[in-house]
Every structure is written in structure tokens, then in C-alpha cells.
Amino acid sequence: MLTLAFIGLVGGLITGVSPCVLPMLPIIFFAGTAGKKETVPAKTSRAEGDVLVEEVEIAKPKRDFRPLKIIGGIVVSFSLFTLTGSVILSALGLPDSFLRWGGLTILTLVGLGLIFPALGHWIEKPFYRLPKINKNNNGAFVLGLGLGTLYVPCAGPVLAAITVAGATGNVGWRTVVLTVSFAIGAALPLLIFASAGSRISQRVKAYRDHQKGFRIGGGIVMILLAIALAFNITDVIQRSLPSYTSGLEKKVAENKTVQGVLAPALGQGGQELAKCTPGAAELAMCGTAPEFTGTQKWFNTPGDKPATLAELKGKVVLVDFWAYSCINCQRATPHLLAWNKAYKSLGLEIVGIHSPEFAFEKSAGNLDAAIRKEGITYPVGQDNNLATWTEYRNQYWPAKYLVDATGTVRSIKFGEGSYDQTENQIRQLLKDANPNVQLPAPVDGTVKADSIGAAGTTPETYLGYSRSANLQGTGKLTPNKTVAFGLNPEQPNDTFSLGGNWAVGTQSVTSTKGSQARLNFNAAKVFHVLSGEGTVTVSIPGEPDKTIKVSGTPNAYQLVDKTVQERKTMTLTYSAGVSAFTFSFG
After folding, report:
1. pLDDT class for 374, splitting at 50, 70, 90?
2. pTM given for the model
3. What is the pLDDT of residue 577?
4. N or C: less crowded end of the chain, CB within 10 Å?
5. Helix (H, G, I), strand (E, B) or coil at 300
């Protein structure tokens, strides 16, 4: 737990000094100066001999807890709403932007309260009864609560892990520790600015002499910044500054210890799975396979009842973790279908565990349609909260766990490829379970499926805020905001840029006015996961333009279909209302 907290704290500190926090600094500074001057009396005396000749009462400044209250409010609201905001808003039927506009409203009211003290007293009054918050400067904690909903730091690896956990509902004590430590780390630099404002207000004579004027000025600054945040004016400043913390964030992301800590929490039932080396050609003994747990709905089972490994004992079981919009998973499905057809009657049972990457994949209706579209007839369990995923210590889409007839995991395969190896292992375990079984010739060589791409193929590219890592253009992904972006005239290899205005979400970006994207890729095939209603025009130099019609729930649309891998740059133009999730390559 200490390692987890330390990684969260370091990630927060890096984020807390990044360009993304700049709009917060004037607010925090002026908030620190806005406290009421409080003093406590102290007496001094001078004696000559036994005679008391003078006694003077001196006013000493009382310790100012306003900065701590501001930061405390930020930590509380940021931690709470990052992990549970989507759940709360969904339960109340409120739009995703509700929290942000609520924060802007609080910021405006506090600014008005500094200008008009009577209004400030009225704002603070409901919070007088809160424990440990006295009647002096209650507005500081309220302001912190509001700022926590506006505080949108840069998406480093730690915040990405927190955001994905919150979006999928996979929130446990590890995620809570990581979130709180991250929030504290990110808030510490802000505390320095708030404390600086407080010290100036107490020690600088010019401030004390013109306290009323400074309070009014601070209120005006807060209101102006609230307006700037509302209309995304602050983005101009952020875009003009280099990302001077990106190097540190990269080192954190590539650190093996950090990668291990940010992986899903290890399920108690799957501790022995670490004995398996993923991708090994030789079968191993990796402990008892964890039971399927925490599923919501089952497909292709008698009466739609949950499948269990206990009932399947005696059969060779291939557990396949997948997500229906994942191109890598789609390319693997034909191999699974071929194995199911060839070996099911001989003792093989394939069980698909659908663990969604994106929120839209949690829909049972969407999943049912995908199962029918792909022609999947083997059992599929819906693992929306990644409960079974976690028990198996999984981190990849797709992932295959091969279980022998005794219920022991014998092989683990992450990602695509090596299908002939997996089929050979299936055949070996079927033979071990029934030495008299008559196996057909291997079928994998006859499977018609898209290849995974030659060496050097561009990796899957995410466009949403929580997982985007290779955006190379002007503009920064800021969730729940419409941001103006600029295309990169010379797009670096295996990166993308956005152009025009995009409404940024955690998992996707949605086109608004003049929305474009530019992608540099090395692949024979390019797929784009899209949803909504509209069109996407694909322009590649030297080739005729191609228009894709988008309609309905998220699905993968093929943009490029070549026989050989090529390095190209494409520019895409989107009509308004199209949501873009990922690019995938083959």
C-alpha cells in the first residue's frame, strides 16, 4: 500500500506543476489573501524593581487555516467525483457537464461574496454546522469543493489508471488509495500559492491598509477566470506553453514498478497464475483456474444460466477475454470459431468473457448484436465490472487462458498471433484427457482472418482523454470541454493530431464544427471505431477520397484495406455529431 500511495503522490506532484494547472493559480492565490484578519491578545509588561510601570496589549496574528481548507476541499471533491462522478450523475439523470458548471457557479458566487460581504456571509451560512469547520472563512472549504470539480490535470499514467477504474466501476481500496494520494500530490503545489497569498495578506502593510480593495480585486479576478474557464479562453495559454513535464510522465509510465502497481488488483483466486509465462510454447502447471465471478448476463447457455468451471470439469476449457469493438479481438474470433467447430464434440469448451474497454460495450443489447454478427455460438459471459478479468490477473485484449480437464491453468496467451501454437496446446490437452480421441488435422491453417500486421505496424491509438498517449498537434485533451485543436502539418510517425473543435470525453471525442483528424500510420489495414450519425471523409495523398457513412452504436469501420504495409498520412474530415474512439491497424 505504501508503494501505491508513493506512486500516486509522485504522479500528483508531477501533474501539480504541469501547464494544465495554470488557470488555477490566480484563483488559489487570491483565495489565500481573502481571509479575515484575526488576532489573539498577548500582554507584555516592564518592571523597575518590584514596581510594575507599564502593561501593553499587543495583537498577534492568528494562524490562518484558510489555505488548508481550500486544498482540503479540492482533495475531497476531486477524489470523490473522479471515482464516482459518472455513477452519481447517471443515477440522478444529470448530464456529464453538471459538475463542471456547478464548480463554475461556486467560483462565481465566492467571487461575488468577496465583493459583497453580505452575500459571502449568506453563502457560508449553510456550512456553519459542519464538524471542524468554524464560522471563520467557511467559504474557503466551499471554494475548494467547487475547484475540485474544475481541476482537470494532465492525463499522466496514474490519472489514466484512476479514470479507467472509475469509468468501469472497478473501484477498490487500491484505487481509492491511488486517487487520494494523487489528489494530495497534485494539490501540494496549489497549497504553496494559497499559503503565499495568506502570508502576504497578514504581513504586507500595503495589503493591510487596502484590504477591502484587494478583496474586491480578488473577487473580480475569480469571476473573470470563471468566465474564461466557461468559454475555454484559458486553453490559449495552455496550448502556447510546452509540455515541460512530459519527460517525467514518460519515465513514470515506463517504470516496471509503476506498471505493476497500476495493473488491476490481483484476485485472490489467481495468485498462482504468475507461474505461467505468457506466450510460452510449453504447457505449465499454473494453479486452479479461478471461477467466473461478478458477471451480469450470459449468452448461448441453456436458459441463459451462468457457465461454471465446476460444471465443465472433465473438458478442456479455453477462456477468452475480449471486447466486441476491439479490432485485435475481432481478428482473433475466426480462429476461435474454427476451433469450436473442430474440437467441441471432442471435449473442448470455449468460454468468452466479455470485459468492456469502453462504457458503450457494457450494453447487453450491443453485446448481443455483436455476438450474432460474429456468429459466436459458444458461451459468453458479460463481465462489466471486470470481476473475472481481475481474478485472472488479466491486462490485455484479447487474452486466452487454456485450462485442462482437471481445472488447472496450463497456458496463457496475451494478444494476437501464435494461433498454431495455441491449437497444438489444445490438441495436446484433449489427448491427455482422452488418449483414445481421434483428432482431425489442424484447422488453423485454413482460417481466413485478417493478419495482425507485419513488424512495425502502428499500435492501437486511443482518442479519448483517459488513454490517449500519442496526440501530436496543438490543443490539449480536456474532458467535458469543447476544445479548439490544430492539425500538425508534418505528422510524426505513429501519431495523430486533431483539428477544429472537438467535444472531449473520457473515452471518445465528438465532432462539432470543422472537426478533422490527421493520422500517420504504418499498416496495410486501418480501422476506426465510430458512433453517431454522419460521415467521415478520408483523404490520403495520391489516392481518391473515400467517404464513410456512420450510423448507430459504436462499431469498427474500415478506412484502409491494402495487401501490403505502407507508411501513409491520412486526413479525416468529420460531419458534426460523430464520436471517435480508436484507430486500430493490421
Report:
1. confident
2. 0.51
3. 92
4. N
5. coil
